[in-house]
Specification:
single chain, 147 residues, 3-stranded antiparallel sheet, hydrolase, alpha+beta, 4-stranded mixed sheet, 60s Ribosomal Protein L30, Chain: A, RidA family protein
């Protein structure tokens, strides 16, 4: 059983009796402020699809969009406890993993689910990723002060 505790988040690669996964934790939990990031697709700042037909280009853009959304809430990929991948073909998963591994260290992999879908809302989109994160409670609030 491999467990990593990063102050406010604990990631458990595999509980006792559960086979360890590759590139994800089976369980992750945290204490603090919960952040939900809607599924992100490969849109640039102008709303144009990045990399039509190119899963690697789309995955890089998706993780950049996730980074920006997390930053808007004061979070980073270190705070992510769960990722859900929606792909139009499981053959796109290696590209998704490569983009994920570029921003999330192997020892901090969140809990994850991957779902193959018939299609996303635009035919040129190959994947979508949503994230859930936990930020630590500010010290003043932990101490019970109104701050």
């Amino acid at each position: 059983m491999s467990e990593r505790n990063d102050h406010h988040i604990t990631r458990l690669a595999a509980p006792e009796g559960v086979h360890p996964g590759t590139g994800y934790s089976h369980v992750a939990w945290g204490t603090g402020r919960f952040i939900a990031v809607s599924g992100q697709c490969a849109f640039d700042e102008q709303g144009e699809v990045v990399g039509p037909g190119d899963a690697s280009a789309q995955a890089r853009q998706v993780f950049e969009n996730l980074r920006r959304c997390l930053a808007a809430a004061g979070a980073t990929f270190d705070d992510v406890v769960k990722l859900t991948y929606f792909v139009t073909d499981v053959a796109h998963l290696p590209a998704v993993r490569e983009a994920r591994d570029a921003v999330i260290p192997g020892d901090r992999q969140p809990a994850s689910s991957a779902v193959q879908v018939a299609a996303l809302f635009r035919p040129e989109l190959l994947l979508e990723v949503e994230a859930f994160a936990v930020l630590p409670v500010p010290a003043a609030r932990q101490a019970g002060s109104a701050g």
